Structure prediction request, 380 residues.
Amino acid sequence: MKEFYDVLIVGGGPAGCGCALSLHESNLQVAIVDKESFPRDKVCGDAIPGPTFKVMDKINKNWGVALRNFADKEDVKTSRAFVPNGQSFSIHWKEYSYNSKRIHFDNFLMQLVRKETNTDLLEGKRLKELEMNSDFVLCKFSDGSICKVGMVIGADGANSVVKRYVEHDNKTNENSCAAVRAYVEGVSGLQEGTNEFYYLKNYLPGYLWIFPLKDGAANIGFGMEMKKTKSVNLREMFLKIIQEEPIISSRFKNAKIVGEVKGFGLPMFSKKRKISGQRVLLCGDAASLIDPLMGHGIDKAFTSGYLAAKQIELCFKNNDFSLEYAALYDQSVYNAVGSELKRSKQLVQLINKSPFVINLFAKLAQNKKVFNWLVKVAKI
Ligand SMILES: Cc1cc2nc3c(=O)[nH]c(=O)nc-3n(C[C@H](O)[C@H](O)[C@H](O)COP(=O)(O)OP(=O)(O)OC[C@H]3O[C@@H](n4cnc5c(N)ncnc54)[C@H](O)[C@@H]3O)c2cc1C
Prediction:
């Protein structure tokens, strides 16, 4: 580690890598610090949303092609939702997307940063605290080392340390949702290219997902709002669903869970918040940018990493590291993804108020014309 960096990106997930890749032509001295060493696992559904690829195209067309051609993937064309009244409906995606285990996907991004940029990669090193100064930020690490940096990018996920310095409190992130996931082999009835979502009568407003993976296994998980999860054991609930729910249990007769059932929090978008401070920008989960309806955040993390890089370049070009100037970043993020997140939030509120609205949606969806209209109106 050097004594000084222009930019220190804390976290090497999609937000951090998106930022580092976007800075490849900036001539700034950049480092990514991550408490883990890559390849590292990340508890996730492993569904990589379409906008991620579009942002990569903007950063570099060849990297966009490389990301699409990445070997460890199962292409996804359809999402199929099963609702409490027994009906189902499918949405066919126009945008390209795939499922890929995060241990491989995130490592691919990290290797791209390593090969194609001059970013210093500081792995196995945990940021402990920041000390804000007018001319620099002093970064202190758990191993006792320190460095001075011009700007800090908080891409350190759901339990962000950096976030505390934007919100000026000592609390870690309040995750509004929690979920568990397992890798499962031998699940019968998996459909190629189709991600399945189950809204089950006794488990609303949570849902179970079944996402097929390249090797014939599946990423299967169950998530719910935090208020509910406080009194329930998500792991037990997950196992009960796959063993006992009539609509799917028969598919698990010969199935085997590989490894542990792991859980993690999801900082869902709930409202526009401050995601920048003096010499600090927050990206991805640290900025609570997960879509509250579907739970996807990789696309938002990558997009906000890209937009943070644009703001970093502006700050250095104009030598302006003020709070006011950094706030342009908030605007650019919410201009890019704010209306989509707000719409999802409204749909979640509607479902929470009256969970069986999903039944109504599925009933209407049986008519193709009405369904197409609904998808257009809800901008799904
Ligand atoms: C169960 C579950 C299922 C999900 N399913 C999907 C899905 O299918 N599709 C989707 O798009 N999204 C999904 N999400 C959300 C998605 O995982 C996140 O939105 C995404 O990982 C955010 O990326 P990020 O780069 O902001 O953070 P992360 O991917 O969490 O990366 C943060 C990095 O920061 C590092 N770090 C943390 N603290 C420190 C520190 N103090 N010092 C140094 N390094 C640090 C971590 O080691 C990590 O590598 C799911 C989430 C969960 C929990």
Remarks:
- The chain has eleven helices and 18 strands.
- The longest strand covers residues 256-266.
- The two ends are 44 Å apart (CA to CA).
- The CA atoms of residues 236 and 261 lie 10 Å apart.
